[in-house]
Amino acid sequence: MVGNVNPNRMELLRLKRRIQIAKRGHKLLKDKQDELVRQLFTLLKGIRELREQVEKELKIAQKKYAMAKASCDEEILYESFLISTKKLHLNIEQKKLLTFSVPVFKESIEGDVLSYGFSDTPMELDMALSALDKALKGLIELAEREKTLELLAVEIERTRRRVNALEFRLIPELEETVKFITQKLAEMERSDITRLMKIKDIVREH
Amino acid sequence: MKEIVVIGNPEIVEPFRAVGVDVEVVTTPSASEEILKRHIKEGTKLIFLEEVFFKHNIKLIMENRENLFPTIVPIPGRGRGGYAQERLRILIRKAVGADIF
Quick check: A53 contacting B, CB < 8 Å? Predict the structure, then answer.
């Protein structure tokens, strides 16, 4: 930047104003980054445990379903799925988190998962569906929290890059240019004074 | 437009039918890619994707990660598992600069 700049007072004033704005922006972005990290820490609490719990419940459901499938006719299983009166409705909203939106999932569940006849179906199927039913609420909560976490992480990364660009590139470059212009102007002033003194000497000699 | 869908191998996703969730049965990674692309295009809000297919479609998922919808979440299936937690760990390490997960 130093190379292609006009060393005059207008440019100097302009650059000084830019430095001021850059420094204010840097402070604001740094504050935003701190707040985002604080939000991330709050969100992190319990997310790992929730993931582990949901995965455990899903694994149980999968295991029991595999056993049910092995001990029963597939058609009977599919029929029992069709009979199920369970209905899941997802109410999707958005929530503002600092400068970006995050999803909010509110589930409304109605009906019963075990609404088929128990005489033809194996016990493992009941256990599988109960486990899955139990996991479903946690799974939706997990989806909401993981997405929020992902969006937060992306935003933190982006903000950090901006903060670093201002702190280590733009502000030092501008300060360097201001220094260059100040030196150049001082040099021009000194050169003017010298020239004037020289002219005065020449005039005096004649 | 569907609100919620589960994509994966039959033995993983079939029980979801009983709890009132739409299901897409896939058996190959390429089929999962097709179906995932279709759901992204159709504007499905929440997609649960079996881990093995999540890994295969990671490029597509990363392209859409800054969008609010669809929210794509890995669920355990065949294989060792643990990919979802590892993914979160990497994400946080990249954002914060330390392994705090």
Answer: no
